[in-house]
Amino acid sequence: KTFTYTETGPQGLLTGKKVIILAARGGQYQGTDFDSQTPFLKNIFGLMGVTDIEFIYAEGLAMGGDVAEVAFTAAQEKIKKVA
Predict the structure, then answer these.
(1) DSSP class of residue 13?
(2) Dihedral angle over CA of 51, 37, 23, 41, nearest 10
(3) What phi and psi values does residue 10 have, to the nearest 5 degrees?
(4) What's the confidence (pLDDT) of residue 53?
(5) pLDDT tens, 7-48?
(6) Whole-angstrom Cα distance, residue 55 to residue 43?
(7) Given pLDDT bands bounded at 50, 70 and 90, which one contains residue 83?
(8) Dist CA 18 CA 51 (whole Å)
(9) 16-42: burial string, b at 16+ Cβ within 10 Å, e else
(10) pLDDT score of 35
């Protein structure tokens, strides 16, 4: 079980956990109104009681060339720091 219903609403049962989400996307959406992935995942994990969430993005991969290479390299570096 990941959550339970209480008199005051749902209560997450996975407190004290950390989640690291690796997101690869063709466009660049982080921090824009078009980023539907980040708030959705925060809400789902929040329902389960997980509030320590870290996102590692590799964005702009469909843009090719330098944009994709820079994004992929930055994501790899962040993965190394987290691991």
Answers:
(1) S
(2) 30
(3) -70, 145
(4) 97
(5) 999 999 999 999 999 999 999 999 999 999 999 999 999 999
(6) 14
(7) confident
(8) 7
(9) eeebeeebebeebbeeeeebeebeebb
(10) 96
